[in-house]
Amino acid sequence: MFKELKNKRVLVVGSYRGIGKSIVDNYLNEGSIVYAADIRFDAKKYPKLTKINDHYYRIHVDVRNEKEIIDLAKYMDAHHIVPEIVIHVAGISTLDYMLESKTSDFYRNFDTNTCGFYFVAKYFGRLLVKHHIPGKIIVVDSQSGKNGYRFEASYCGSKHAILGILRVLALEIAKYHINVNAICPGIIETAMKHRERRDAARIRHTTPEAIKKEDISQVPLGRTGQPQDVANIALFLGSHLSDYMTGQAINITGGMTMH
Ligand SMILES: NC(=O)c1ccc[n+]([C@@H]2O[C@H](COP(=O)([O-])OP(=O)(O)OC[C@H]3O[C@@H](n4cnc5c(N)ncnc54)[C@H](O)[C@@H]3O)[C@@H](O)[C@H]2O)c1
């Protein structure tokens, strides 16, 4: 679909499953060279970079660990494989009443979601600037980065913070022709969403099935999203079609969020 994406180097952080995996598949279909990083890729088997084929590599990385991101950026720089498109997808969520919530859960959300994005954008953004690459930095944020939802104080906080960082970075590196944009998905059917429904059902004394029905009823387009819906926007943001966009947060919510 996008000839220009053929052989482009794309780093997808948080790509073992769910939305990240769909983004990897989309770029592989375009003929890009995809570096798929995730904490779930075996650290022993994948100490640095495991070649699956000429276009697909896997990397073990924990985005909470700044040193691992620094090491990965150094490694890719030293091996002349600096990614031109950098996509941060890794995220976690916890659900609870704010007043009952654990402070440790608050930090967990910020460590993975916010600090993870900060590290990836900072160290790979530096490489784009160093090598004069007019690249793209993309983060999968959430409509929880724009709205408040019950039980999601830590998650919403961490996702709102990402958009603040993104807007500053977009301003600062626009002069290098590097675009920095976010995708804000709504309700997407992944393992994370299924676990959230189980947690919400426990808190609200109902069932995950009832919550799913409620979810669907809230979406103007009448269905919840699939990982592919989000991955399509990641392709657009990695292509020349988004060259005149930076600092934006695009909703892909079936109409749930319109600002
Ligand atoms: N599913 C939804 O409804 C939804 C809605 C809005 C936003 N999002 C966001 O989309 C992103 C992907 O979510 P998903 O639904 O695919 O979830 P998921 O749990 O299926 O996938 C998350 C991926 O991130 C990886 N990951 C988690 N912690 C990591 C770490 N410390 N280091 C490296 N990798 C790590 C996981 O191993 C997994 O592969 C998340 O940032 C999430 O907040 C999801």
UniProtKB/TrEMBL annotation:
Keyword annotations: Oxidoreductase
InterPro entries: NAD(P)-bd_dom_sf, Sc_DH/Rdtase_CS, SDR_fam
Gene Ontology biological-process entries: bile acid metabolic process
Pfam families (alphabetical): adh_short_C2
Superkingdom, taxonomy of origin: Bacteria
Signal sequence annotation: none
One GO molecular-function entry: oxidoreductase activity, acting on the CH-OH group of donors, NAD or NADP as acceptor
Family: Belongs to the short-chain dehydrogenases/reductases (SDR) family.
Family annotation (PANTHER family): SHORT-CHAIN DEHYDROGENASES/REDUCTASES FAMILY MEMBER, SORBITOL-6-PHOSPHATE 2-DEHYDROGENASE
Name of the protein in question: SDR family oxidoreductase
Source species taxonomy: Bacteria, Bacillati, Bacillota, Bacilli, Lactobacillales
